[in-house]
Amino acid sequence: MTTLRSQTPEPSSVDTLAPVFKASGDPLRLEILRVLRRDTFGVLELSQMFDMRQSGMSHHLKVMHKAGLVESQREGNAIFYRRPLNLDSEKLTDQAIRQIFEAVDRVALPDELQTRIDAIRDQRAEQSRAFFSRHAGQFREQQELIAAFDLYAEPTAEVIRQRQARQHWHKALEIGPGEGGFLPVLSGLFDQVMALDNSQDMLAKAEQACSEGQLTNVELVHGVTDDLLATGNRFDLIVANMVLHHVPSPADMFLDAAGLMADGGCFIVSELCSHDQNWAKDACGDLWLGFEPEELTAWAADAGLTAGEQLFIGLRNGFQVQVREFWKTTRPPRNRAGE
């Protein structure tokens, strides 16, 4: 027979829950948690978004951080905030936090708030576009301050070759082709290739590469993934080489990739792991200082994609590159170690 004692949580356990519910018991804080569902924002951005003084926003974030509702992420000299990457399903407080997230995620964002979020993303995107417009001629030199092209392009190409040999795909999309250095690989493996970039200057570089390489099956498109979604195009493979740290909302790229992929398709990403080299923002136009692998996995899962093989490449200058694949299927190919 179950006793009353066994049904009642220990007082100490209840005590641990109180700070979580107290910190979340405010409409503004719940709205902050809602906008952090897939995004990372700085204090200044959140103050702008909610039209309040920075000191007031900092206070709210400090309380939420102490309760475990948000965690900080340093991007150079700025502090950004996001939802916790890892919640322990066995931990009572983390269970409560997850339930709070699930509840606020069912609430639609007000139109006015969504407009302000879009404005912040537009500011970030313009910053990236302006950089590549100014430095298109020095693109390769600046990118190789961090990672030489071949160091991540070759492993990425090898993953694609292995998958293509079994999948027999026909149509590929490269997001952010840069100077077009990876397009010959895709052109040789696929019947149709599309290259999408929001910088006309970089597309001109890619067009030159296509002309010199006689890549007749490559279509160059100016725009962003949002634009492409409206066209109804679907791809077997989407690849983004060292692109995520340049886009205003990396999580949204996973959502867009999922929408642009055919069933059974694959999204392959090569990207920097999280680092603390702030000079990369000015020298290379980076909006983000890399990403934790768990961030990419969480964004992919939120978009309905399943993580597959992963490869990590350590560089002599201290940077680390991750090559990841994400599948639009319930049964992705097993990692090589399990084959």
From TrEMBL:
Domain HTH arsR-type: 9-104
Protein name: ArsR family transcriptional regulator
Coiled-coil regions listed: none
Organism: Marinobacter oulmenensis
Molecular function, one GO term: DNA-binding transcription factor activity
Membrane-crossing residue ranges in chain numbering: none
Taxonomic lineage from the root: Bacteria, Pseudomonadati, Pseudomonadota, Gammaproteobacteria, Pseudomonadales
Alphabetized InterPro entries for the sequence: ArsR-like_HTH, HTH_ArsR_DNA-bd_dom, Methyltransf_11, SAM-dependent_MTases_sf, WH-like_DNA-bd_sf, WH_DNA-bd_sf
Any Pfam family matching the protein: Methyltransf_11
